[in-house]
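BUG-393 | component: ligand-complex export | severity: low

The export step for pyridoxal-5'-phosphate jobs runs without errors, but we want the raw record kept on the ticket for reference. Input record follows.
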Amino acid sequence: MRQDPLQFLSTELDSLRAQGLLRPLRVLEGHQAARARFDGRSVVNLSSNNYLGLTTHPELIARAHQALDEFGVGSGSVRTIAGTMALHMELERRLAIFKRTEAAVVFQSGFTANAGTVSSILTKDDVVVSDELNHASIIDGCRLSRAAIKVFPHKDIDAARRILESLPAGQRKLLITDGVFSMDGDLGRLPDLCALAEAHGAIMMVDDAHASGVFGANGRGTVDHFGTHGRVDVQVGTLSKAIGALGGYVAGSKPLIDFLRHRARPFLFSTSHPPSVAATCIAALDLLESDTTLIARLWSNTQFFKKGLTDLGFDTGMSESPITPVMAGEGSRAMELSDRLMAEGVFAQGIAFPTVARDRARVRTIVTATHTTGELQFALDAFNRVGRELGLI
Ligand SMILES: Cc1ncc(COP(=O)(O)O)c(C=O)c1O
């Protein structure tokens, strides 16, 4: 009888199970909202990236419906053949205005925006200088580019400088950071990194997936927050988090965007967004540019919840954003914290190795603009009870 060539996968899964790291997918029934129904129970949802609650915003839904009725459910092609609709072009025009750049190009996701961009602008002769906590999509882009990858310790500007100084002046270099680090919620040191990039002739790239819609005027991101407009050559953002829909984009100079339209492989070889997605994103930009109420609400909720956690005595790491980790130590402990919170009616996802270091496992919380104070207090009360039971506070 033929031996199963995939047997090793079951062995791997057994090992994850033994470590308490085998996770079932939580199934959402109904809306992605501040209070939502997962696996049959109603919970306070602290696990989505739906910062502004736009996944269910009536205006965005109406614009999606309108586009569905007018243009159908799909685009039917990749952008470079027959899949560029007027809505895609309009979204890109609007994103460039939003990010204050010459141009922008939309990808199917933030992941493909990062991976497609890094892999197309660099070659094996080039070097990437990258923060150790940069997102997986940046790392994959670096690997695909075959450029040499030099990693500096998290936010260690001196280490980044030493790497840059050690490289030949004529070599092409990309200095890259997340704007907001997705697991710790802290900010990249943009002004310092921009100065380094300028001093060493490096291309400066920022992944603002968790900052767009959250930081800066009208949610323009960390480049706006730090006043570094014009100093970041490549700005990546996502349409899947605060914008509430799906997709990623790159904003920058016109030559950069024209180049990506000719060379970025996800743009060339994967079908473009359904028109309803593009229409939804345009509606989100309309909202962000005209009304900052939701962003203000996001930040007041963030402050309330962070203070609640630290007052209880939890270690919340170095967060500066609505992403607040609650440190738990080992992976199995983070998963236990997450499971016990779920039993108390609070969904806060446990995060363990390989997403974070083995001894830095955590429960990751994200508040949104649409949580009520009552919901956040309910979550804090649950954290208090479970944290004491587990000896975390
Ligand atoms: C920092 C960062 N960059 C990029 C991405 C990818 O974005 P998307 O979910 O749109 O693919 C994510 C999230 O998943 C992220 O956290």
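Assignee comment: Attached the raw record above. The two ends are 55 Å apart (CA to CA).
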